[in-house]
Request: fold
Amino acid sequence: MDWTQYINDLFIRSAFWNLSVTGHRLTDEEIGYPFYANRLIGIPRLRQLRVSDDTCTVHHALETYIDSCFGHFSDDTESVESFGNANVPGYATVDR
Reply:
């Protein structure tokens, strides 16, 4: 499963339920509350936080199998390098 399938199929269905905690179908007024919390207006937006490569140490016995290592996310390990094609927008429209 790729990233797009995960977001469209699993993530959206998991975050935006159409059944209540008691199992009854939600009304149109009740739908749109991610995790039954704040009201969502518009489409959800995701933000990507990336960890810099080689922010942890690979044990010398595993160096032939593991060529890069990503540690825990923090202000010090955050990657701020450009990612992807700069000529393409960072979003995609969905045809409905």
Observations:
- Helices lie at 3-15.
